[in-house]
Amino acid sequence: MGPPGAGKGTQAKGIAEAYQIPAVSTGDIFRAISKADAATASELALQVKEIMTSGGYVSDEITNQIVAERLGQADAAEGFLLDGYPRTAGQVEALDAMLAANGQRLDGVISLEADQDELVARLLKRAEVEGRADDNEETIRKRQQVYAEQTADLLRIYSDRGLLVAVDGLGEIDEVSDRITDALDTHLNRE
Ligand code: ADP
């Protein structure tokens, strides 16, 4: 977990490789859905695209269903890393139910921390490099606001459960990756 621009997607790929588990990124899944070409674009694709461009959250109903389906696939049976999910209280609840139904549990929740100004700078830079439609200043501000309103408080839930692993997200990608694996290994050995 972490605010937009904290580096979740980048770090998720590294962690997935290190622990030999699939990274399940709701942002990537929604980007793929929204990119369906105009001729075949479904109602869902159009809806997701509009929401992402505005910086809001896709509904819990759609998001939870997509994650449940993804976690039901064979490659996730032995473990997985969630990137960008859960982001709302409703998603936390739905995830708890999914995991219980599958006889699984979370080993840890990584909180990637970074300061606001650095995040805006990173996202604007990414806009130049990747051309993501939601990386313009207006949408970035909206995404930060939505994160603060709906997601930031969820960290406390996981902290109360003893699952939170807080990591400083500032610095080189490899530095942050090392910090994450060190913190995670310490956390896992404590369990
Ligand atoms: P970032 O965290 O940098 O904004 P993501 O790629 O994780 O980037 O997410 C991009 C967008 O995808 C979000 O702004 C939101 O519209 C949508 N999205 C991703 N994950 C979720 C989620 N769990 N619930 C609702 N919407 C989501």
Q: What does the main sheet amount to? A: 2 strands, parallel
Distance N to C terminus = 20 Å
Number of helices: 9
Which class best fits the helix and strand makeup? mainly alpha
Q: Number of DSSP strands?
A: 4
Ligand kinds: adenosine-5'-diphosphate
Helix content: 55-70%
Q: What is the fold named in CATH at topology level?
A: Rossmann fold
- How do the SSEs run, as a string of H and E? HEHHHEHEHHHEH
CATH homologous superfamily (4th level) name: P-loop containing nucleotide triphosphate hydrolases
Rg, alpha carbons: 16 Å
Whole-number tally of structural domains: 1
Q: Categorize the overall geometry.
A: globular
What share of the residues does DSSP label as strand, in percent? 5-15%
Topology:
Blueprint lengths: L7 H12 L3 E3 H9 L8 H12 L5 H12 L9 E3 L5 H14 L6 E5 L2 H15 L6 H15 L2 H7 L3 E5 L4 H18 L1
Parallel strand pairs: 1-2, 3-4
Bound molecules: adenosine-5'-diphosphate.
The site of adenosine-5'-diphosphate has 20 residues, from helix 1, helix 2 and helix 3.
Description:
- The chain has 191 residues and is mainly alpha-helical.
- 60% of the residues lie in helices and 8% in strands.
- The protein has a single domain, classed as 3-Layer(aba) Sandwich (Rossmann fold).
- The protein has nine helices and four strands.
- The protein has a two-stranded parallel sheet with strand order 1-2. It has a two-stranded parallel sheet with strand order 3-4.
- The two termini are 20 Å apart.
- The structure holds adenosine-5'-diphosphate (ADP).
- Adenosine-5'-diphosphate (ADP) binds at residues 4-5, 8-9, 26-27, 30, 51-52, 55-58, 63, 84-85, 87, 91, 134, 143.
